[in-house]
Design goal:
heterodimer; A: alpha/beta; Rossmann fold; 4-stranded parallel β-sheet; 38% helix; globular; B: alpha+beta; Ubiquitin-like (UB roll); 5-stranded mixed β-sheet; 2 helices; 25% strand; binds pyridoxal-5'-phosphate; binds zinc ion
Chain lengths: 417, 93
């Protein structure tokens, strides 16, 4: 049974039916899904949730579908790990990594939003699924559409990583590469959505799509033993994930599943594309668009749709925004891999790099709980690492050459007698 | 001074279908008040009750967002052009 009431304008509060609408016709504000929280509170307990299978649908009462999902039944419930080694390296006591680099099936948090969006689009009768993407969404839309036999159209900026393009084409999606930035791709897609009537998951299906990100937050809280962490660092592109993590915390508090919400939310961007961070640092409500230039291509949105609300989440929660350079992104990717054995994509480098910086600045104290949100997999952005890692050592298949190598390394190893 | 104003699709119901109209005013606020006289109901769609521009409505003066100028107080000169653009379309720079 569904607890979705309808859609509601975030700006003026005007209510709308639960259809494929995303903009308020009165004030042009974004629409958001509204639920019957009183009823959810009656039926949804920690015990009910804990008995369910380990995937994001264990929180289905808080998701915007009429019935069970028709694609992505296995998505979510990724590991939350206690990162002792990384914690030591950063000099902090209680550090966790929420690891969506291993989310099913396409190794990023986007599978959460896409399984909701496609399931909802099918409930609404759409036949074609589409998106404007910086890469991960492309992979997820293509894979999940294939998995439920839907045709998909994926629109990307022309300069994406090859791996993200291959990882979209393989599923049989039609990939359209646009000569322009993501923001130009997005604008074109709004026009296409209007003209062709397809389900663009992050445009006309956006109110439903965005709700999927809440499960990243619910899981974090459940995995911490129904406790709110003190500090959460989140990467931002369009700014949807960070606003929905904050919404998820507030919902859990509202329906009584967790208490004493005192989390501070920090937004992370690359220095080459930091429109939201800039606004937070300037104390401004205005997001001044930028032209992106960074290796963190998945986060390269210069005119973020949820920029205003993201900045507000950071302000309201007592958090902050920070950015890091491309070099700092690479260093952080290495640090995460070397300390915890986790290979995150460039966006993960942004998030960890920013976390490190916030700790060094004293904005995040060393003795309080911290969660780092890792949202995508490093195997997809290997191009960013060319020339940045140690070289492999090449020798012939001869033992003597290996002995020379060991000697050259200057290390002593005991030999087997 | 008459200034040309581009009207987005969702507001054309109020301008009898026109995508471009002319309005009089020395600054953008005056233009909006003049538009309201010719097309009653238009102001409410782009401004809050207190007269401030709604958050998800952008107005461009010759391709520059007026929020980064003097907002509704931005002064106008001969041959300036205004575009009203809902923010949701994404938009680019
Ligand atoms: C790996 C990764 N992390 C984070 C984000 C940010 O998501 P949002 O657009 O919701 O801010 C994206 C968006 O594409 C992404 O690909
Ligand atoms: Zn509204």
């Amino acid at each position: 049974m569904s607890f979705m009431k309808g859609l509601k304008c975030r700006e003026c509060g005007k209510e709308y039916p639960k259809e494929a609408l995303h903009v308020c016709e009165l004030c042009f504000g974004p629409l958001e899904v509204n639920y019957e929280y009183e009823k959810i509170k009656e039926v949804l307990t920690r015990q009910t949730i804990e008995k369910r299978p380990p995937n994001m649908w264990r929180y289905k009462e808080l998701l915007p579908l009429e019935s069970d999902p028709s694609v992505g039944a296995q998505v979510g419930f990724t590991p939350l790990i206690r990162a002792h080694n990384l914690g030591n390296a950063l000099g902090v006591r209680e550090l966790y990594i929420k690891n969506d680099a291993v989310n099913y099936p396409t190794l990023s948090f986007k599978d959460r939003v896409v399984s909701v969006a496609i399931s909802r689009a099918r409930e609404l009768g759409f036949k074609i699924i589409a998106c404007a993407s910086t890469g991960n969404l492309a992979n997820s839309v293509a894979a999940n559409s294939a998995a439920c036999g839907m045709e998909s159209y994926v629109f990307i900026p022309h300069d994406l990583e090859q791996t993200k393009i291959m990882g979209t084409l393989i599923y049989g999606a039609t990939v359209v590469s646009i000569k322009g930035t993501y923001d130009e791709v997005n604008r074109l897609c709004s026009e296409i959505a209007g003209k062709y009537g397809w389900a663009f998951v992050n445009i006309n299906i956006r109110p439903y799509y965005a709700e999927g990100s809440k499960t990243f937050g619910y899981e974090m809280i459940e995995q911490l033993g129904w406790r709110f962490p003190r500090h959460v660092v989140v990467p931002m592109a369009g700014g949807s994930l960070i606003t929905k993590i904050w919404k998820s915390f507030n919902e859990l508090q509202k329906i009584g599943l967790a208490k004493n919400l005192d989390s501070r939310i920090y937004g992370a961007q690359a220095a080459g594309c930091a429109p939201i961070v800039n606004a937070v640092k300037e104390g401004s409500e205005l997001i001044r668009p930028v032209r992106p230039n960074t290796i963190a291509k998945s986060l390269a949105i210069g005119n973020p749709a949820d920029g205003y609300y993201s900045a507000k989440v950071m302000r309201d929660s007592g958090g902050w925004g920070e950015c890091v350079t491309d070099d700092e992104i690479i260093s952080a990717m290495k640090l995460l891999a070397e300390t915890e054995g986790i290979f995150a994509e460039t966006a993960g480098g942004v998030t960890l790099g920013v976390t490190k910086k916030l700790i060094e600045q004293g904005r995040i104290p060393k003795d309080e709980s911290i969660v780092v949100s890792i949202t995508g997999n490093g195997l997809k952005t290997q191009e960013a690492l060319y020339g940045k890692l140690n070289q492999v050592t090449v020798i012939n298949a001869r033992l003597a050459e290996f002995d020379d190598l060991v000697r050259a390394n200057g290390k002593e190893y005991a030999l087997k007698s | 001074m008459a200034i040309k104003v581009r009207i987005p699709t969702p507001l054309r119901k109020l301008t009898n279908g026109s995508d471009e109209v002319f309005a009089e005013g020395r600054n953008i606020g005056e233009i909006i008040n003049d538009l309201e006289k010719s097309f009653p109901g238009l102001k409410e769609r782009i401004c809050e009750g207190d007269g401030k521009l709604r958050r998800f409505v952008n107005i461009y003066l010759n391709d520059e967002d007026i929020r980064f100028k003097k907002n509704l107080e931005t002064e106008l000169k001969e041959n300036d052009e205004l575009s009203i653009i809902p923010a949701i379309a994404g938009g680019s720079i």
